[in-house]
Amino acid sequence: MTPFIAPSILSANFAKLGEEVNAVLDAGADIIHFDVMDNRFVPVLTIGPLVCQSLRDFGVTAPIDVHLMAEPVDNLILDFSKAGASYISFHPEASRHVHRSLNLIREQGCKAGLVFSPATPLTWLEHVIDDIDLILIMSVNPGFGGQSFIESSLAKIATAREIIDASGNDIRLEVDGGVKINNIREIAAAGADTFVAGSAIFNSDNYSETISAMKSEIMLKPIDN
After folding, report:
1. What number of other Cβ atoms are within 10 A of residue 11's Cβ?
2. N or C: which end of the chain has fewer CB within 10 A?
3. Marked catalytic residue, from 35, 38, 131, 133
């Protein structure tokens, strides 16, 4: 599967968000990652569907990857699908009926994803693997940008890759948290194909050079142990 770089707008300059998004897309980004936090599921409040709609109205046509760190999720699924989301992912702990929420996403014409925090087991996948298009492994605890990558996440990524391969389904494996140039090759070698990076891209001096370096590192996998 073609690797995707997904800059997280959580680290962008919101005073000129449309220009920032176009800049990272022009620099080689593949999709835009959209962190939705509700000050309940996580202790931070960020952005909602109106911002997603504003990016579409601004002319952004690239896929928008919405990560819901919020509860409950079903109304937000409806709102973000109407606002132009391409992918919508949520944490299983945030829905009382995970299967129903996943299918609600697909019914709206979006790709459905399930998100696993560092302490959330992958056993949920036993029941819904045929109902998802994306698995998102959090390599930090959700809620804040700029955190360091949790090394034990590599084993979890590898296990998720095995589950995907055994299913025979076309499912993206995304990683979010502490992804940088100096560790993205190791993350890719563990099995990821979609890489969320916020501060590593938006805080860099040159978006194009940073994204190009990330893609070059991905192409160098596997890593010799």
Report:
1. 18
2. C
3. 35
